[in-house]
Specification:
By secondary structure, the chain is of the alpha+beta class. It has a domain of 116 residues: Immunoglobulin-like. It contains three helices and twelve strands. The strands form three sheets. Strands 2-12-11-5-6-7 form a six-stranded mixed sheet, with no helix packed on it. The longest helix has 56 residues. The radius of gyration is 34 Å and the shape is flat. It is a single-pass type I membrane protein. InterPro entries: Ig-like_dom, Ig-like_dom_sf, Ig-like_fold, Ig_sub, Ig_V-set, Myelin_P0-rel. This is SCN4B protein.
Length: 206
């Protein structure tokens, strides 16, 4: 049991950079490098660091507890902290100002939480720096996504319509059966010949 307890604590801290881990930035622009962390049992004196290409430290910060904002221990002058921990998300994102081609590479957001027996976790973003944004590629991608999305949407719509139509037909058939049964019953009763038609239709004896 103690082993399981330690196992659970080890995986309680989690660091994330969002849905995609690739960012493209225009040369000489400012780029956001997102990072958030989650922890099941809270944190105390949590330390977070940002590294460029695994070794170069570009930002180092500390967070006393949930009620306080992060404090900067050291940072590269071009790196600006834009996160917050007193709000709902434990955001430790940074902005890299005046991006250059030499800034392209791997950025690692690393978190260490002493409250979880010094549990550590990190997440990585890959930054690409371009001379100019190519809009045509994006347009083509959007068109492809739009067409594929449209086809999938039409297929789903067709399947839904088919199901609805089949359901209506089934209901109508069920309704007709009910109508036929009730009308023939009514006719027999009204004519005072309940069961007479059934007797007439009985198969002849051999």
């Amino acid at each position: 049991l103690p082993g399981l307890h330690v196992f659970a604590i080890t995986f309680a801290l989690e660091v994330s950079v969002g849905k995609t881990n690739t960012v493209t930035a225009l040369n000489n622009s400012n780029v956001l490098l997102p990072c958030t962390f989650t922890t099941c049992i809270g944190f105390q004196d949590l330390v977070f660091t940002w590294y460029f290409n695994s070794t170069e430290l570009i930002y180092h910060g500390k967070i006393k507890n949930k009620a306080t904002e992060p404090t900067r221990i050291w940072h590269n002058p071009r790196v600006e902290f834009v996160g917050s921990t007193t709000k709902k998300e434990n955001n430790i994102s940074i902005v890299l100002n005046g991006v250059e081609f030499s800034d392209a590479g791997k950025y690692t957001c690393h978190v260490k939480n002493p409250k979880e027996k010094n549990a550590q976790h990190n997440a990585t973003i890959f930054l690409t720096v371009v001379h100019k944004m190519v809009e045509t590629d994006n347009t083509v991608t959007l068109i492809i996504v739009g067409v594929v999305g449209g086809l999938i949407g039409l297929l789903i719509l067709f399947m839904l319509i088919k199901r609805v139509v089949l359901f209506i037909i089934k209901k109508m058939q069920d309704g007709k059966k009910e109508c036929l049964v009730s009308s023939s019953g009514n006719d027999n009763t009204e004519n005072g010949l309940a069961g007479s038609k059934a007797e007439q239709k009985a198969p002849p004896k051999a």
